[in-house]
């Protein structure tokens, strides 16, 4: 019985791999950074398909299509926001049952047997299913020993795999280099959960999401290849939204070729306004929902 595991940048994955290992062939799909794909490739999985993404949920349909081709009986992932969206698309593609809170899983002939934590860990249920299942792992993460690396194949936008040479030297890139719209945020965003506000705005206007260096480098809220600037990515979109970004020269070096810069900042003296074509002075937590409302009307 084959298993597919979906790994995004947002959560540790060793515990997930550990419970899937006894099930046999285990194909991993990594939606995130190349560094993550390399880590997964030495974790004991049978194969790795890799899709580079700053915003995993935006790739849900591509991943679902790839999983449908693999047609695994079991799909496992972690309950992160990106993985939840992907899992929903996969469940539709496979006509699968979604199961939360999985801490262990096994098979008996063609039946999947799941141990599920319920009632905040006070109850341990055992569920059985003959259907395809898409499950969210809720157990502890663990240390895994290193295995020989398996090949990493890139998953392109049409759902077909093509070979790439992960070990070759070269700069890491994300969709930011080619994007025609970029929504980028900085330390004006106060909590990791608030990135959902940025993501929903970016989705509404069909933009890639980027950030300032501290967001990726200090806080690790996004993969490193998502930050823009002198030591990060260069982007040349038709429109670049700088949200809660002060406009340090190192950041601006990465957006020199943007056609239009729209800055949103609550400090009227913020340096970003000197480089912006349009500036909105105000609290991003009020401005972004207001902009979304206008877009939806
Ligand atoms: C060698 C070197 C290389 C570097 N390379 C890069 C690089 O490649 N890319 C990069 O980005 N940085 C780089 N930096 C760091 C850079 O100097 C800045 O420190 C960084 O860009 C600041 O990030 P920020 O604008 O997110 O944060 P901050 O400077 O803290 O700015 C946050 C902004 O958010 C605004 N804000 C706060 N709350 C709100 C709110 N509710 N609504 C609206 N606005 C709000 C504030 O007014 C402020 O302007 C580099 C630094 C060095 C020394």
TrEMBL record:
Keywords: Electron transport, FAD, Flavoprotein, Transport
Listed cofactors: FAD
One of the record's GO molecular function terms: electron transfer activity
GO biological process terms, semicolon-separated: fatty acid beta-oxidation using acyl-CoA dehydrogenase
Domain Electron transfer flavoprotein alpha/beta-subunit N-terminal: 20-129
Residues noted as binding FAD in the record, renumbered to the chain: 187, 244-251, 265
Cofactor annotation remark: Binds 1 FAD per dimer.
Pfam families, A to Z: ETF, ETF_alpha
UniProt domain Electron transfer flavoprotein alpha subunit C-terminal: residue ranges: 176-255
Superkingdom, taxonomy of origin: Bacteria
PANTHER family assigned: ELECTRON TRANSFER FLAVOPROTEIN ALPHA (PTHR43153), ELECTRON TRANSFER FLAVOPROTEIN, SUBUNIT ALPHA (ETFA) (PTHR43153:SF11)
Family membership noted in the UniProt record: Belongs to the ETF alpha-subunit/FixB family.
Descriptive protein name: Electron transfer flavoprotein, alpha subunit
């Amino acid at each position: 019985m084959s298993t597919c595991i979906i790994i995004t940048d947002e959560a540790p994955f060793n515990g997930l791999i550990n419970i899937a290992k006894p099930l046999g062939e285990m194909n991993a799909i990594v939606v995130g950074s190349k560094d993550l794909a390399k880590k997964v490739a030495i974790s004991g999985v049978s194969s790795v398909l890799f899709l580079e993404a700053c915003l995993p949920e935006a790739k849900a349909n591509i991943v679902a299509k790839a999983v449908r081709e693999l047609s695994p009986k079991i799909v496992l992932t972690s309950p992160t926001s990106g993985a939840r969206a992907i899992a929903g698309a996969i469940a539709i593609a496979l006509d699968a049952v979604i199961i939360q809170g999985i801490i262990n899983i096994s098979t008996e002939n063609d039946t999947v047997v799941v141990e599920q934590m319920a009632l905040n860990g006070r109850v341990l249920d055992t569920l059985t299913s003959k259907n395809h299942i898409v499950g969210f792992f809720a157990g502890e993460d663990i240390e895994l020993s290193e295995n020989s690396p398996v090949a990493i194949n890139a998953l392109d936008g049409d759902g077909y795999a093509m070979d790439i040479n992960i070990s070759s030297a070269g700069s890491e890139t994300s969709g930011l280099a080619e994007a025609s719209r970029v929504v980028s945020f900085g330390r004006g965003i106060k909590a990791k959960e608030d990135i959902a506000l940025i993501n929903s705005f970016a989705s509404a206007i069909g933009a890639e999401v980027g950030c300032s260096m501290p967001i990726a480098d200090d806080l690790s809220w996004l993969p490193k290849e998502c930050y823009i600037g002198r030591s990060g990515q260069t982007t040349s979109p038709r429109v670049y939204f700088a949200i809660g970004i002060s406009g340090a020269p190192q950041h601006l070096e990465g957006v020199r070729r943007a056609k239009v810069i729209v800055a949103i900042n609550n400090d009227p003296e913020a340096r970003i306004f000197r480089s912006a074509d349009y500036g909105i002075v105000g609290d991003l937590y009020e401005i972004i929902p207001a902009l979304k409302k206008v877009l939806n009307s």
